[in-house]
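Internal tracking record. Fields below are filled automatically when a chain is submitted to the structure queue. Please do not edit lines marked as system-generated. If the sequence contains nonstandard residues, flag them in the REMARKS field before resubmitting.
Queue: standard
Priority: normal
Entity type: single polypeptide chain
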Amino acid sequence: MNYPKIEVVDMHTGGEPLRIITGGYPHVEGKTILDKRRYVRDHLDHLRTFLMFEPRGHKEMYGALLVEPNLPGADLAVLFMHNEGYSTMCGHAVIALARYAVDEGLVSRQEPVTRVGIECPCGLVNVDLDVASGNASFVSVPAFAANRSQKIRLENGRQIVVDVAYGGAFYALVEDKLLGVDVHHDSVQKLTQVASQVTENVKTQVDIVHPESTDLGFLYGTIITDGRLGSGMPSRNICVFADEQVDRSPTGSGVTARMALAHAVGSVGIDETVTFESIVGSKFEAKVVDTTSIGSMPAVQVEVSGKAFYTGRTVFEFEEGDDLGKGFLCR
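SYSTEM-GENERATED OUTPUT FOLLOWS
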């Protein structure tokens, strides 16, 4: 396998890392973004582990590969990668990519706000960047409550009720008290273990269907919440996705899914702003800005706001004979 020198720019949004691949990656074939996603999965996955895993990364690393856009209105297109594979949407990443695209001249800078159209595997996401402050807001693809009040049984025989909602990716949403944990006080390790149990059981007990694409129809992870949404206080949650990867940010696509569910049950109205807090205390704001549909499914579009920061620029390379240099994980 070929391991070229690869240039990256590292950023973070709300503490969640993003490694933007800026040079050296082989050409990605495919007409559509989902074709390209399948191509990198089937032919270039060794480069995902090369960049995401140790010794260059870690189990919680997240990446963005820029590819040629196909959709009208898209300034750039992106494939997201993580410790397990390739996701369909990532809010913290599009917030960072908007700032990167403006700073690097990939789009023409407009004062005071520059709009960046980013083609994601889930569809076109428009991001508005306030160029003076660096704050960015994206409007989601149609988001919806997919499977409400689903009863699932855990390994210990206990039955719980979860909701499944889509915000560019599908998440199981469950309040901490139903699981006997506390997202404000319990350890990340404990919360991760419990969330992973929920994910595995939802995958086997609930049918996850996207109305327009089988490529999008899979459970990405579980979000444990404090149940405070709509209370006027920040709502804290932890998102555990892929292979027990923990999001340090409130999770842009997860916040979108939570807002879609909240609107479906009537606890959040149009243009009502809600603040979400992550396990490291970082915050996103979100509001439902429009109602729509996807297929026959009632849906909403959600605006999510946050800010990204730069952390470094690197050229990664591989030295022959370094088997560990191909990528590994200790946990």
